[in-house]
Every structure is written in C-alpha cells, then in structure tokens.
Specification:
elongated, single chain, 3 helices, 115 residues, 3-stranded antiparallel sheet, Ribosomal Protein L22, Chain A, alpha+beta
Length: 115
C-alpha cells in the first residue's frame, strides 16, 4: 500500500530543496526524520512537515494494514518547479534588473514494502 502527500508553492528554490530530498530518498521514515532534524538547511522543515503528513495519510487510509509507522519507506520524493515571482531592483542609469523569487512543489510517496 502507498500514501501520497504534496506541498505546493513552497517559497524555496527547487534546486536547494532537491539537495535535501536526495538525502532522504529510499530511507525509512524514522531515519529520514532524523536526517531532517539534524540538517542545517531551510528546506528540511517543509519536507519534514510533508513527511509527517504522508505518514498520517497512510495511517488514516481505510484499507491501511496494521503496520508500525517506523516500518514505512520513502518510495519516491521529487521536487518540481513552481511559478516564479518577478520583482525589480533599481540599477544605475535608470535601468532595472529582475529578481526571480522561485517557488517549488514537493511530492512524497510512502510505501510499506521494505526493499
């Protein structure tokens, strides 16, 4: 059985979130939460919340087997690019340069099958 969770419009660049997502891919939930707790990256907080949400989705499913949450495995996690907010900054000689504030969408799939 599998459970999914999605977080959309997270205000961190997808390139930075992928660094944290790569660390937890394929790990058990308990181990992944430890990695996220001790990682000094801004992206670890929203990924941790999303992982808790995915575990909750798995446990609240109607046909959920009696399985311990620590036995769940992160089957896949991916980070997609969201919309980019564009802001402008004044520059020399009356010009303006663009500032791109990137957003991302994070998705996690949990599975009870141990690899």
């Amino acid at each position: 059985m599998e459970a999914k969770a999605h977080a959309r419009y997270i205000r961190i660049a997808p390139r930075k979130v992928r660094l944290v997502a790569d660390m937890i891919r394929g790990k058990k939930v308990e181990e992944a939460l430890n990695y996220l707790h001790f990682t000094n990256k801004k992206a670890s907080k929203p990924i941790g919340k999303l992982l808790h949400s995915a575990v909750s989705n798995f446990m609240n499913a109607e046909d959920a087997p009696n399985i311990d949450p620590e036995d769940l495995v992160i089957k896949s996690v991916w980070v997609d690019e969201g919309p980019t907010m564009k802001r402008y900054r004044p520059r020399a000689m009356g010009r303006a340069s663009i500032i791109r504030k990137r957003l991302c969408h994070i998705s996690i799939i949990l599975s009870d099958a141990i690899k």
